[in-house]
Specification:
The chain has 628 residues and is of the alpha/beta class. It is 31% helix and 21% strand. Helix 3 runs parallel beside helix 15, helix 7 packs across helix 9 and helix 16 runs parallel beside helix 17. The structure holds nicotinamide-adenine-dinucleotide and 3-phosphoglyceric acid (3PG). The site of nicotinamide-adenine-dinucleotide has 32 residues, from helix 7 and helix 9. Belongs to the D-isomer specific 2-hydroxyacid dehydrogenase family.
């Protein structure tokens, strides 16, 4: 007889005991002694020391016990009940009042502006969410300080170059932004800078205020008929293009990812980078700051521009090498520049660029209209609350988006997936050394129609969390798996079952490891378990090559035994003697009086003595105790 210790491994079962894993119920007999009452889908987070205790489904932060939630309504009611406490939301920059009102109705809102990096790190440790604009650097240190509690960073605007997305992902923190509400404001500001620069509005205004009347000095240039290059034909760039067309300009755009039909619809030609910059009279920048756009406008690119070009930047200061721009202004390659954004904000008071007489500047005002700020504030408040409430975020920056209908459909499978991962890793001898996992989804659906990212994340969570102190969710599951050298491959097999159900069964196989329960090892040497959802409840349906049928909740004892009368009673009595409540029992076997697998669900964890007694029942050949 083997116990749950790693040293007591027995060889895999003989092939006589190996019914087909794909259809265990056909070749196994089941005796379902008792069924448990199942908890509702508990979306309350199990997160440690976390006051807010939310379950962020879009991120799969935490799940609790086996559960069922087959409709969106079930899910939503579970979400709302999970946000009972008062989450703390730190707002570190000025946010529109309308958004603050929405946030205050939801939780405790702390507005603390102009925090030093140290002060931010100190505060963040007691916050569930952080809302920033472009002025707050959300660094790795911030995520480290917020570890375990900070669940979401909301960027009240578009650009997320001030947020360390890699660190956010590693710490499982969702980043959401408000990408649409300030588009028009930014485009209008771009046009304002374009026209103000062309007609020297700012310079002549300053001159008049200084008591001068310099009409000939401030002769401008006309815009009609001139070529404007839009660099980055996204939301803002397209709106600038529309407006520039209204000014009678010829507009071209460069954007490696922009669809040609959108450009055509606005009457804009998409051209190469070099073509755009070398033939244009005005160049307006609208691309994000990324590693590939960092200082993309530099000495080399300025040298390719038409002499006397005028540049507008309402995107990010970092896309321009500012020293090179000063040189280009001094040499006359660039006649004028109108800048709303700077590499360092605010720039130094003696910045040559800011002080340059041919440069018009504004202090990052692109998004600063009353309308845009109210809009952005509401957009980000809703996104952050949604994320804390477990809703799918349409503006997630560092997590795959899962459509609400997919989420609702997959809810019970999400629980099953985590339980299977959790069970599989506990069957590994010593629990460690897991490197290769294969997940097989059997489904009647076309493999293309089955989005398994959520399920894979939960299996990863189930496998990693019991053996490490990592915290896994949809945001960081793939990253953490990779970091730990865990390779999870997936296979989808089309089966002839109901296409109404997204998944028929999920099988988790771990290879190249020893098992503490030899019966879990298939002929191919892999630990294998399989489960399905029955009436919304996750069930374990196969262990190794043997069929079983137990609902997954509480704890589980798996025994391999000789199939003979009285086994259920013997084990049941031992557990009763130790005041351990049995929630269900199931016996699967291939044929009479040979070997069988008994699965016993227990509410409490049996002590060593009880487990030893089970182990000494002569007909029991091996057993393992597993925590779900
Ligand atoms: N000044 C402000 O207050 C203000 C306000 C809003 C937006 N912005 C900034 O403006 C920029 C654009 O915002 P958006 O809402 O239009 O974003 P967007 O994502 O809709 O558009 C950005 C576009 O840039 C394109 N792009 C990416 N790399 C490029 C490259 N190397 N060359 C050319 N194009 C490239 C993308 O394909 C995309 O179409 C962002 O940097 C944003 O932060 C500034
Ligand atoms: O990226 C943006 O949305 C703009 O740059 C606005 O930034 P702000 O919120 O700091 O005004």
């Amino acid at each position: 007889m083997a116990s749950s210790s790693a040293s007591s491994i027995k060889p895999p079962l003989p092939s006589a005991l190996t019914p087909s894993s794909s259809s265990p119920s056909k070749s196994s007999a089941f005796c379902l002694v008792n069924t448990a009452s199942f908890n509702k889908l508990k979306l309350i987070s199990l997160s440690r020391s976390h006051a807010q205790r939310s379950f962020l489904v879009s991120n799969v932060l935490k799940t609790a016990d086996a559960s069922s939630a087959s409709t969106t309504k079930d899910l939503e009611s579970s979400f709302s009940s999970s946000v009972g406490t008062n989450p703390t939301i730190l707002v570190s920059e000025k946010l529109g009042e309308a958004g603050l009102r929405v946030l205050r109705e939801f939780g405790h809102v702390e507005c603390a502006y102009d925090l030093s990096p140290e002060e931010l790190c100190l505060k963040i440790a007691s916050c569930d969410a952080l809302i920033v604009r472009s002025g707050t650097k959300v660094t790795r240190q911030v995520f480290e300080a917020g570890k375990g509690r900070l669940k979401v960073v909301g960027r009240a605007g578009v650009g997320i170059d001030n947020v360390d997305l890699q660190a956010a992902t590693e710490f499982g923190c969702l980043v959401v932004n408000a990408p649409t509400a300030n588009t028009i404001a930014a485009a209008e500001h771009g046009i304002a800078l374009l026209t103000a620069m062309a007609r020297n509005v700012a310079q002549s205004d300053a001159s008049m205020k200084a008591g001068k009347w310099q009409r000939s000095k401030y002769v401008g240039v006309s815009m009609v008929g001139k070529t404007l290059a839009i660099m980055g034909f996204g939301k803002v760039g397209s709106e600038v293009a529309r407006r520039a067309k209204g000014l009678g300009m010829h507009v071209v755009a460069h954007d490696p990812y922009a669809p040609a039909d959108r450009a055509r619809a606005i009457g804009v030609d998409l051209v190469s980078f070099d073509e755009a910059i070398s033939n244009s009279d005005f160049i307006s920048l609208h691309m994000p700051l990324t590693s590939s756009t960092d200082k993309i406008f530099n000495d080399d690119t300025f040298a390719k521009m038409k002499k006397g070009v005028r540049i507008i930047n309402v995107a990010r200061g970092g896309v321009i090498d500012e020293d090179a721009l000063v040189r280009a202004l001094d040499s006359g390659i660039v006649a004028q520049a109108a800048l709303d954004v700077f590499t360092e904000e605010p720039p130094s008071k003696d910045s040559k660029l800011v002080q340059h007489e041919n440069v018009t500047v504004t202090p990052h005002l692109g998004a600063s209209t009353k309308e845009a700020q109210e809009g952005v504030a509401i957009e980000i408040a809703e996104a952050v609350i949604g994320a804390l409430n477990g809703e799918v975020s349409a503006t997630a920056v560092n997590a795959p988006m899962v459509a609400p209908e997919v989420l609702s459909e997959l809810a019970p499978y999400v629980v099953l997936a985590e339980k299977l991962g959790r069970l599989a890793v506990q069957l590994v001898s010593g629990g460690s050394g897991v490197k290769t996992v294969k997940v097989t989804y059997r489904s009647a659906r076309d493999p293309e129609d089955l989005d398994t990212r959520l399920l894979r994340a939960m299996i990863t969570k189930g496998i990693i969390e019991p053996i490490s102190n990592s915290y896994i969710n949809l945001v960081n599951a793939d990253f953490t798996a990779k970091q730990k050298g865990l390779r999870i491959s997936e296979e989808r097999i089309v089966v002839d079952s109901s296409p109404e159900l997204p998944v028929d069964s999920i099988q988790v196989q771990i290879s190249n490891v020893d098992s503490k329960f030899a019966s879990a090892v298939k002929e191919n040497g892999e630990i294998s378990i399989e489960g399905r959802v029955k009436f919304g409840i996750p069930h374990l349906t196969c262990v190794g090559s043997l069929g079983t049928d137990v609902s997954l909740e509480g704890n589980l004892i798996l025994c391999r035994q000789q199939d003979q009368p009285g086994m259920i009673g013997k084990v049941g009595n031992i557990l009763a003697e130790h005041n351990v409540n049995v929630s269900f029992m199931s016996v699967g076997r291939t044929s009479r009086r040979k070997q069988a697998i008994m699965a016993i669900g227990v509410d409490e964890e049996p002590n060593k003595e009880a487990l030893n007694k089970i182990g000494s029942v002569p007909a029991i050949e091996e057993f393992v105790f597993l925590k779900l």
